[in-house]
Amino acid sequence: MPHINAAAALQVSMLLFALPAQYFISQWYGMDPAERIQITERTIASWSSSTRFYLSLNAWANHVKLWLSKTRTCLNVGLLILHCRNWCYREKQTKSDDNEANPHSYFGESTHVHSPKPEYVQFCVGQVIIHKRFGYSGVIVGWDVKANTPEEWLQPKYPPRKQDLKDTPHYRILINKANGFGKSTAYVPEEEITIIMGLEVVHHPDMETYFSGYDGSKYIMQPWLKKLYPHD
Fold first, then answer.
1. Alpha carbons 120 and 222: distance in angstroms, whole number
2. Residue 170: which residues within 8 A CB-CB, separation 6 or more?
3. Angle, to 10 degrees, between the axis of helix 57-101 and the axis of helix 33-54?
4. Exposure pattern of 23-39 as b/e (b: 16+ CB <10 Å)?
5. Which one of 108, 136, 183, 218 has the minimum C-beta count within 10 Å?
6. In 132-193, where does DSSP find H-type helix?
7. How many CB atoms lie within 10 A of CB 112?
8. Domain count, the chain
9. What pTM did the predictor assign?
10. Distance (Å, rounded) from C-alpha 131 to C-alpha 185?
11. Under the phi-then-psi rule, with left for phi > 0, alpha for psi from -120 to 50, and beta for the rest, what region is 199?
12. What is the per-residue pLDDT across 123-141, written as a single tens digit (0 to 9) for each?
């Protein structure tokens, strides 16, 4: 403990005596002798108790220990909360990074670079197609070397007799709105479509997102799409 000189001790003593003295004086006057005696005894008892507490090293030590204990508890709780927040943030960030690295990975929308291009993938992004069975036209905006979809989507689409189609190239199609077909996009195996030439007009609200023009044989990919399909 730091050394307390006489002046400091006197100041502390005056502060300790001020409160009980003021209370005693305010209560003592205007009362009969019996009440004054009771007030005096209560004041002395209160002052004695206060003095024992404030001047007792053990009392101060216990008070400091209690305060430190509460402080450590609050600090531990704060650290725990901070740790949980950081963990949640890392989990969220990891999921966010995963999504950004591979968003919409199903149905021909994966953002990984499709290189090298296997020879058995016959068609290219930007080519105009006709569906052999349903008759709608559209344009290819993506492909997978085989069906890349959730299993629950594959089961009803490919019954046992068509299971082999799952391992053939699949294409994502923007369907020409002029056909009046109910869907705006499709994901189809290679054997169900055929390429047509000279059909420039494919009406779809997302055309400009994927393409910048038409070169007479196919639509010209936007730079971001060309990076994903460098060999198309």
1. 24
2. 108, 143, 144, 146, 147, 148, 187, 188, 189, 190
3. 60
4. ebeebeeeeeeeeeeeb
5. 183
6. 151-157
7. 9
8. 2
9. 0.56
10. 12
11. beta
12. 999 999 999 999 999 999 9
User: Encoding tokens for residue 97?
Assistant: 């990074």
Query: Domain residues for 173?
Result: 127-228
Q: Answer whether residue 204 is part of any domain.
A: yes
Alpha carbon distances (Å) from 94 to 85, 86, 100, 104: 14, 12, 10, 16
Residue 222 lies in a domain: yes
Q: What is the pLDDT of residues 161-189, one digit of tens each?
A: 888 888 999 999 999 999 888 889 999 99
- For residue 9 the two structure tokens come to 């001790």
Per the CB < 8 A criterion, the answer to whether 141 and 220 are in contact is no
Overall residue count recorded for the chain in this entry:
232
Residue 105 lies in a domain: no
Q: At what angle do helices 6-28 and 33-54 cross, to 10 degrees?
A: 150
> Are residues 82 and 137 located together in one domain of the fold?
no
The CA distance from 108 to 170, in Å, is 7
Give the DSSP per-residue string, 91-128.
Answer: HHHHHHHHHHHSTT-STT---S---SPPTT----TT-E
pLDDT of residue 6: 62
Residue with tokens 């006057």: 29
Residue 89 confidence (pLDDT) above 80: no
